[in-house]
């Protein structure tokens, strides 16, 4: 393969070999070698995990683990992931708790806390089975059915796996233990 590189100089076109008398072929080989090395280096850098490149795993930051607590109903244990709210942090600071909770509307258990928690109430629209909410500033509510609601609550957390929650809570009042995980 023959390459002809032209260099413009004062309205005159000359080849590389004319600029470097006696070194034209050598200069072309060197230039070809440099181009080849650049191409190989570029291909290597494009490979996933190649040295000198940043992968998502290498640049990912370690996220702190979400705070959790345990809810025990009879012999059943449920893990609750706490929300990132001041109310949830204060609830966790109160643990362990044992609360008698009454049934309301066949979809929730509620009980009064000894101390008020900070509120940041909003209307969730849909309440999901396993939601742990605060109604007002002192009423702890565990929902065991999914339904629509126009009421306002402060989110405290959510049962990680609510399967079997409705059966464990039953239809009447029950005592629920809340503890640190």
UniProtKB/TrEMBL annotation:
It comes from Ideonella azotifigens. InterPro entries: Cyclophilin-like, Cyclophilin-like_dom_sf. Pfam families: Cyclophil_like2 (PF18050). This is Cyclophilin-like domain-containing protein. Residues 71-177 form the Cyclophilin-like domain. It comes from the Bacteria. The lineage of its organism: Bacteria, Pseudomonadati, Pseudomonadota, Betaproteobacteria, Burkholderiales.
